[in-house]
Amino acid sequence: MKASRSDYLVLIIGLLVAWQLLHWAVGANVVSSPAVTLKRAFELLHTKSFWNHVASTGMAFGLASVISIFAGIVIGLWLGLRRFAGDVADPILNTLYSIPKITLYPLILLIFGLGVSAKVAFGVIHGIFPVAIFTMNAVRNVAPIYYRTARILRLSLLTTASTIMAPAALPEILTGARIGIALTLLGTLIGELFASTSGIGFVLIRAMDVHAVVDILALTTLLFVFAASINALVHFFERWARHNAQQ
Amino acid sequence: MSKVGATRAALIFGLFAALEFLCRAGIINRVTMIPPTEMATSLWDILKSGRFNDDISFTLYNIAAATLLAAAAGFFIGAALHALPRLRRTTEPLLSAYYAVPTFVFYPLLIVAFGVGRAALIVMGAMFGVVAMVVNTMLGLDHVPPVVERTGSILKLDALRQLIFIRLPAAAPHLITGVKLAVAYSVIGIVAGEFILATSGVGKRVAFAYDNFDNKTMYGMLLLLLIGVMVVNGALSVWEKRLHRRFGQR
Asked: Of the CATH numbers 2.60.120.10, 1.10.3720.10, 3.40.605.10, 3.10.180.10, which one belongs to the domain with range B35-246?
């Protein structure tokens, strides 16, 4: 079932109505009204310092995403092709994926200090595991006949991975990448909340400290729109790859 | 032990031994990390002296309450959305982008609404966990095989019995996955809340020790947190696998 344009409209109207009702129920010092908040969000979009923070977050997020996806796919392809190594690593990867990475924040700060590298590291530890796990499973689920063809053609491990496994497993790998990207964004923002001097997360924690309700909600709304757009974009690629793989 | 298991154990042991060596040799300095054996002895001291027992039970209680709330609310919302496909289709984008936004930015607002203390933390944890449960409840109900539903109709079960005896058991594997994720997310929400602002709790102790360069206490408490999460997660995973096998699904 695919959401249509009218569905999005209904969703947005529904959310605004629920938000307004919540505002009336709990008062302006807990939840500001949608009108005030959205006005503030548009104001933010017109200030230069906001865009500087966006650039700072965007850079860290971009770098962390590239590292997560690239390293995750390399690890996943290797573990997927080497059954024994994959069997050994599978539970370890799943455990690392499931531990709440936020508990590691003091460790990351002690290793990387305050700044860009800590943000990127936080993003990567969130994003790399789902990408690796999905890639590994994707490779393992590739029809054995492809693998046998590669053996007959005497392709090296590297060529097998890049010319046979990667295209065949692409749709599932993209699912992993989508989850990885969402978690990388979460990780990067968490890194900024606890350990930085610039970026959207930093602006948020400052707003939290002075209890600027309107700012908190305006920033969260913008973040949500951003996260949902990225999610939709990768989803689109995923469908495209799946469509291609079926031909 | 199988060859795979033995290799895995050797690998993990080797990693810890390497870490221990790097710390002892001073290649990783003590300000950054203390040797794993010292983390373990610190944890043992903490548990033996009982000085953080109040914090530990505070956090455990909060996690349990938040998980319960998230699982119950998530189940009902998931079941409702499953029954209303139109609404489900509409809310889909909301659910799939939910986890990319750090929900604990709402924590200060919750403090204003509930005050500093248990309630704000529990609501925070539940807000984090609920969507995972909603999504998995819907998945579980999607995967109820039509044949068992038809069997239920043939046996003329009423709606309630159909739910209790047919649908819930058939959806159980996914429901457990939902609960497992709800626990994990509740922990994130609650520990994050305790890091930011709380009167007690494991997260609060970790943050306090970090601020005071008390690495021994900090790593001891972190180890406790990680071990706790891994044990709960491992137990739920075993249960999950067993249910999946029993119902012959993947």
From this structure: 1.10.3720.10
For residue A31, give the 3-state DSSP assignment: coil
Distance CA A72, CA A76 (A): 6
Q: What is the pTM of this model?
A: 0.83
Residue A11: list chain B partners with CB under 8 A: 90-91, 93-94
Shortest alpha-carbon distance between residue A104 and chain B (Å): 8
- Residue B107 to residue B99: CA distance in whole angstroms: 16
Residue A132: pLDDT band (50, 70, 90) is very high
Residue A14 and residue A88 in one domain? no
Report the alpha-carbon distance of residue A232 to residue B94 in Å, rounded: 11
**Given an 8 Å threshold on Cβ–Cβ distance, is A91 in contact with B106?**
no
Give the count of alpha carbons within 13 A of A200, CB side only.
31
pLDDT for B42-88, tens place per residue? 999 988 998 888 889 999 999 999 999 999 999 999 999 988 988 88
> Is the same domain home to A103 and A148?
yes
A8, A88, A103: residue with CB nearest B225: A103
Residues A171 and A68 grouped into a single domain: yes
Query: B106-117 pLDDT, tens per residue?
Result: 887 888 888 888
Domain region containing A21 = 1-31
Which of A91, A99, A185 lies at the smallest CB-CB distance from B229?
A: A99
If asked whether residues A22 and A90 sit together in one domain, one would say no
Give the integer Cα–Cα distance in Å for A165 and A156. 12
Judge if A6 and A57 occupy the same domain: no
Query: Cβ A224–B101 below 8 Å, yes or no?
Result: yes
